[in-house]
Fold this protein.
Amino acid sequence: MSGHSLENEKADPPNVIRSVVMFVITTCSVYLVYGFQWANGNPLQDVGVAWESAQFAMALMTILLCHELGHYFVAKHHGFELSVPYFLPFPFAFGTLGAVIHLKSLPKSRTALLEMGAAGPIAGFIITVLCILFDAPNTVNNSTLQMVGSYDEYAQQVLELPETTGVWSMVNTWLGYEPPSLETMSVLIMEDPLLMRIGHMGVLSEPLSPFAQLGPIAFAGWVGCLITSINLLPIGQLDGGHIVNALFPSKAKKISKGVLGMVFVYGLLTWKGWMVWATLLWFMKATEPVWVPSQTTLSIRALVVSVLTVCVFILCLMLEPIYSETISIQDIVWILQE
């Protein structure tokens, strides 16, 4: 997530040092989380896992860095002050919550606010496209689910699982998770954004399967799509909120609150991550648009940029980024360990 909040203090050299330190810590966090969680190995001991983790960390942090530098340099071009970006490590999911930039002065025009807000997603999107296209040839486009091990090993694990009852059973049901059985398995599948489907179709000359195994750099591109689409939601101090605020300054506050409520309700019904993001934004008070001089007019270039961001949003959007699908055991291909 990339957010922009207003503060009064001036930037000073130690802020740059702090930003660099946070970048290094976040890179380490992304590296370790990918290795232990997504590569199912130890990136501190296994050379293969270490190399995959390094590729993912470098690709994702490049996407995030270009996103933040896009904001920074365009804001400087328009003559208003903001801090250097502060990257946020996170020990789960993808190892990071993105970054934040503090606005230190108000935008001087609607055009300045719009172009500053759009610069980050567009810059990050360009790197995301390159990551997906570069690593698409390494995608293993499995037509069905493949599992390491044997059915007998799986059946033994199922029989040894404790029965889930009470509150945890209700939570699992609410999350749409079904416990494994001897006949079926509930599998988490990641939705493919339009950008990834188009890119892989062009490279692989066949539709991308829900069970495809992405390389680490392409997977970073998938995360880049997710981050970009979340940032372009027209809510308060998100990038999309800045763009809508510049386009419709008198209606931006109502739009922000309305979209936040819609995202929360949609999250209740589908992917719970949307509900989490909506709640987080509400607690962070990031739903309030920044002040912008409404009497100023938008340039033609700014209007063109706003159309480009809509296209970027459509290409990156995933209505249900992670969903559960029940697979018959008979449809699973078992791969025996050597």
User: Anything to note?
Assistant: The beta strands are 2-6, 86-89, 96-103, 146-148, 184-190, 322-328, 333-335.
